[in-house]
Amino acid sequence: MSEVWNYFVKTSTVSAKCKICGSEVPRRGNTTNLKVHLQKHPQKDKTLRSQNASKCQDQEQDLAQPPTPSTSFASAEPSTSASTIDRMFKETQLWTDDGPKTREINEAIAFMIVKDYQPFSIVEDEGFVNLLKILAPKYKIPNRKLMTKLVDDKYSKVVECVKTKIQDKDLTITADIWTDSHTTRSYLGVTCHFLSPQISTSLQAIDLGVYIMNERHNSA
């Protein structure tokens, strides 16, 4: 949940009440209006921005690095019937749809898809399925629809991080056009540049997107 809710109380599905001034603020399924209203209270707004910047840096580090493998479940209890049953139950819980081991592997697959430009359909490839059956027999391989949702969720987090980073910054936008020599298809890359004293005194740059050009690009 966004930190902005530290300063508001939900009063309905379409509005929230400011804890600072008591104003009723309309909302439409997001926190944009709430953040805009909070700017009327500069000190609280500054605190929220600082919290978001810190959270954004943590999320960036998590998204940029592959998930760290967890240690296998092991019990130091004596081998009794009761402890064995308890251990088996805990082991089973690890591999439920929302279990920690299942989430860990799901995150690792999502990272692989993004990092290596793999298609979502890889989770249905015979070789990939066979590999996971050997490595993690209890793991239920998700379908491409679930993997798409996982990657979309990560994308949404990155978008929020980018918005937080460039908010209230003086931006310089640059564009670069190039053509793929194999497909002869042209692309437009857009990058923004800015200074961010909270992160570094050096120039920061963020790739905003790459877009396919409908018209052919050449040097003329």
Topology:
Blueprint: E1 8-12, E2 15-18, E3 24-26, H1 32-38, H2 42-64, H3 81-94, H4 100-115, H5 126-135, H6 144-166, E4 172-179, E5 186-196, E6 200-212
Antiparallel strand pairs: 1-2, 2-3, 4-5, 5-6
Helix pairs in contact: 2-6, 4-6
Describe the model.
The protein is of the alpha+beta class. It has six helices and six strands, in the order E-E-E-H-H-H-H-H-H-E-E-E. A three-stranded antiparallel sheet has the order 1-2-3, with helices on one face. The protein has a three-stranded antiparallel sheet with strand order 4-5-6, with helices on one face. Helix 2 packs across helix 6 and helix 4 packs across helix 6. It is flat, with a radius of gyration of 24 Å.
Assembly status: single chain
**Rounded Rg:** 24 Å
Principal-axis shape equals flat
Low-confidence parts, pLDDT < 50 over ≥5 residues? 73-77
- How many β-strands, per DSSP? 6
What portion of the residues fall into strands of 2 or more residues? 15-25%
Strand order of the largest sheet: 1-2-3
Count of helical segments? Answer: 6
Rounded mean pLDDT score: 80
- Helical fraction: 40-55%
**Biggest sheet, in brief?**
3 strands, antiparallel
Q: Could you spell the SSE succession in H and E letters?
A: EEEHHHHHHEEE
Query: Structural class of the helix and strand makeup?
Result: alpha+beta
Rounded to the nearest angstrom, the distance between the terminal CA atoms is: 51 Å
